[in-house]
Here is the input.
Amino acid sequence: MTDALLQVDDLRVTFPVGGREVRAVDGVSFTVEPGQTLAIIGESGSGKTVCCRAIMGLLPAGTAIRGSARLRGSELLGLSDAELRRHRGSDVAMVFQDPARSLNPTMRAGVQVAEAITTHRKVSKREASTQAVELLRLVRIPAAERRFHEYPHQLSGGMRQRVMIAIALACRPKLLIADEATTALDVTTQAQIMELLLDLQKELDMALIMISHDLGLAASYADEVVVMYAGKIVEQAPATQLFGAGGAVRMRYTRALLDAIPHLDRPAHTQLPIVGGRPPDPTALPPGCSFAPRCQYAEDDCRAKMPTLAEHTPSHRWACWHPCEEGGAA
Amino acid sequence: MAAPLPEVQLATAAPPPLPSLVNARQLRAQRLGRALRLWVPAGIIILILAMCFLLPLVTTLPSSTNGNIIYNNEAPFSPGHWLGTNVQGVDIFSQLVYGGQVAFEVAVSVTAIGIVIGGTLGVVAGYFGGWVDAVLSRVLDVLIAFPALVLALVIAEGLGPSEIHTIWALSVFGIPAVGRITRGATLTIRGLPYMTAARLAGTRSWRMIARHILPNIMPIIVTFSLLGIGVVIILEGALDFLGYGIPAPTASWGNMIANGQQILSAQPEYVLIPSIALLITVASLNMLGDALRERWGTQ
Amino acid sequence: MALVQQIQLQTGGSGARDGARRITGSPALRTIGRRLLAAIPVLIGVTFLTFAVMSTLPNTTAQAILGLNATPSAVRALNQSLGLNQPFLERYWHWLVNVLHGNLGTSIEGASVNHELAIHVPTTLGLLLYALVVSVVLAIIVATLAARRPNGIADRISLAVSMLGLSTAPYAFAFLLIIIFAVKLQWFPVLSGPVNSPASFFRNLTLPAASIGFGLFAIYTRLLRADLVEQMQREDYIVTAKAKGVAPWRVLIRHALRNSMFNLITVIGLNLGGLVGAAAIIETIFQVQGIGNDLLTGISNHDEPLVEGIVLVFALVTVLGNLLADLAYAVLDPRIRYGSSTS
Here is the structure.
């Protein structure tokens, strides 16, 4: 809690959509320490992306944001766009999901990287270009000088994502948010990019928030894991406490996610225990636990009252009236 | 011609709907705005049509072609002459009404011909592709490159100006314009997966066209036609103005402008009145087309 | 970018020429070549049709020259000497051959068509360029201001003004301009005088250019504004730019506007053909000595060679315009220019 890099307290984000209110993020609090890797896991619509975009100030006008998000002690929410822009890209940076659409198709790759530099630092164009090439090398793009002059469509998916990372790292941010950064890539490239991110993290002493729907990714690469559902955090713990030997997943939703992952040693030809039903409609959330409609173990108190997120065992928080048994291994 | 190709106007899409990040009150305001944008222009057009086509049936208007020179240059609101009379004593309001009739007759005819002939060509070219498309596209290209102005003038010069000749001449321009649009729309729809599925299922061509393509290109054709009618009204006015369209003394808005040209500095109203009529009519058509496009989604 | 595809679909495609030097990739070169070949039948088609139309009308050229009191035999003799009683196909062929040798024939008035065109084409060109440049520049400025805050004040004003521009007839607008600026304010002359200096250029051609330009401005503004707003709202690379910390104006101009230019150039190219026609009427009103004016006098004089020559120019412009629209993609869009390569 001391010297936390990012401290988010009771973040609430509401959209007015078509006359109704959507509570995309409903009271989320977490902390990121310097150099730490935090994974935010959830389905589409869980609020994980909105949460981070709120911190970056990238949500459209008309959105109501309440709560607090402090970066190294200074409050980010409520800043004017001009003030926020000073942090965006320099202290906090973001990498997005689809590199094919996230890069301007008519601008050369290197120029887009250089722009990230010149936006925050007063350097000559030539100096920025040199630095951009250095960045391209940093993200392990071979023949960086040549790639500098190429257009995004001339690069492969993996390389485009590296360019995005280079853009994000341009000003050596202390916090990098990777929003489903590897979802659009094939598995091999995915591993390469994750390795790259982790190495860069160590090299640049950078904290990383990885947003994903992939528990496996979280298990492999994260220090701390936050699981979100319907705009709330439902479980939070260090990765070691959740996964692997001695790990214990308590909240039913997380358990269901884990169970749905196919294992090699599963008996063949048995049906995967998928999580039935559909993600909840954010405009019509049920009273009580949002996961109750889809939970096998739901009881009346689950449907009646919203479970509170509490630290039941040291550094392990969950929000469930009837959690899994202690020792229910992952 | 006087206005660029209508397909270009189509490409200038109506303002895209903003994401509905609005609360309930703003939503109601938005819906009201949308309804107004549709019904106000529609109402104006209906009013104009009523004025031009129904009014003469209900009341007798002073002649639009002959006038008594004694009563020339009457001011607006004089008895018997709502908008006054022109230099020759012809009633201006009558000229507006009958000129409006002519404008709509020509514009609707040209658009109808365009849709029937151009639409057919476009759908056939777009649907069958291959050499059929190549040939038809060339034909459309030639027609579009052909300065319709020249054709209209030459025909008028040789055969004498008349309403029918004007319609023919402007159709040379209207057919390829519609043709291109329908060809493009057909190509788009043809490429959709469900069309491939239908084809694989053995559906016959004419059925595919009738049941799948035509209903889906209807919205485009309708919005395009509204804009097109506006364009043709302006073009027809241009021809009349030059003296190669509707012959004097038959009233037409273009003729009125041409006649008013001489006394422009002294009495600008003779030019201004038909110009305003043109403006209101075409603007209403454009706004209606926009509103319909908004309602039926872009494209 | 959906607008882009829409317009691409509608480009029937024709013509090609300069700009081929800048193209390095061969797919682009082949496209240009194909367009070039496609242009030729179009040009032939257009001129053939014009000839056909002019020939089917009662041929009174000689009559027009000699006047109403000419005797029938004199008319016949003149017809003979002018070669006007030959079969139409033969005449077309002769004309075509001459054109390929650079000779556009002789006008009724006696001057060579080449000469007439050489004098008058630059004037019309000047007028059109004036109208085009000013309307494009203004459109870019206004559209950018409007797109900065969609549905804001600047946006609403721009939409209203462009709706006006879209709906006014250039010839009606011309008279409005004359009333206000030439008669009441006396800033410009009502009729155009000779254009032989920059000062006389602006003095004489401003009102005519404005008459044509208002409609153009309206179209370009609407197009750009729609494209810009769509990009700013729907495209991911805009979010990336914002995430970098780039200021909103820079995002709009450096990222969105740059991509919108393709669309704009395409539309300008497609418009070119219609533009010359519009110019004709405006030239008549202001008595600008350009080819539009010539066309009208030529038609009333039954001056076949002159009309043919001007029609050829019109058709060429249309064809070139379509080519320009295609070229905008082949040359400028890096996706087409460089093709795709993998690492």
Notes: The longest helix of chain B spans residues 205-242. Confidence is low (pLDDT under 50) at residues 1-17 of chain B. The two ends of chain B are 25 Å apart (CA to CA).
